[in-house]
Amino acid sequence: MKIGDKKAIVIGATGLVGQALIDELQQLEDFSAITVIVRKKSDTLNAYSKVTQLVLEDFLLLNDEDVSSHTHAFSCLGSTIKQAGSKQAFYAIDYEINAHFADLIQDKNIHFLIVSALGADANSPIFYNKVKGELEDYLKSLSIYKLSIFQPSLLIGK
Q: What parts of the sequence cross the membrane (predicted)?
C-alpha cells in the first residue's frame, strides 16, 4: 500500500480517545481520507481537511456501502452505565453498535481497530467488563481481515 492509499472510517470520534485518534490520522501521510460517523455535525471536526462527516442519528443504520471503500475501521465508541443512563442503554452502545460495525467489516479487506477495556471478560461478574468481554469474543468469532483490540486502563482527560 502506497502513502496516501489508506482510508479510515471512525465511530466514537467525538470522545476523548476518538479526538486524539482523529488528530493523529490527520497528521499521517498514509491516510488520505477519514470518514467520521456522527449523530450530528461537529464544528470541531470541520477543522480537519481529511475528515468527511457522515451524519446518522442511529448508528445501526450504517450500511455496507458506507464502509466498503475503507482500508481501516476504528471504533473508539464507548460509554459508561452512568453516562448511558442504564445497563440496557450501555449495552446498546458498547455491544450492539460495535457488533453491527464489525458485521459490516467482516469478509472485507479492512483492518478493524477497537478500544475495549482492561479487564474485559465475558465471565466477569462486573457488568461493564462482561459486556466488553462478550464483544471481544464476538469480534474474534467473525471473519475479520485483521483485528486489533486495545485494552487501556483508566482513561483520564477533559
A: none
Reading the block at residue 137, the C-alpha cell is 469474543
In tens, the pLDDT along 77-106 reads 999 999 999 999 999 999 999 999 999 999
Find, among 148, 77, 53, 78, the residue nearest to 110 by Cα.
148
Count CA atoms closer than 13 A to 10's CA, side-chain side.
29
pTM above threshold 0.90: yes
Q: Are 79 and 63 in contact (CB under 8 A)?
A: no
Per the structure block, which three cell numbers stand in for 101?
460495525
Closest CA to 37 of 3, 64, 67: 67
Q: Positive or negative CA dihedral for 54, 60, 63, 68?
A: positive
Q: What are the structural domains of the chain?
A: 26-57 (no CATH), 63-157 (3.40.50.720)
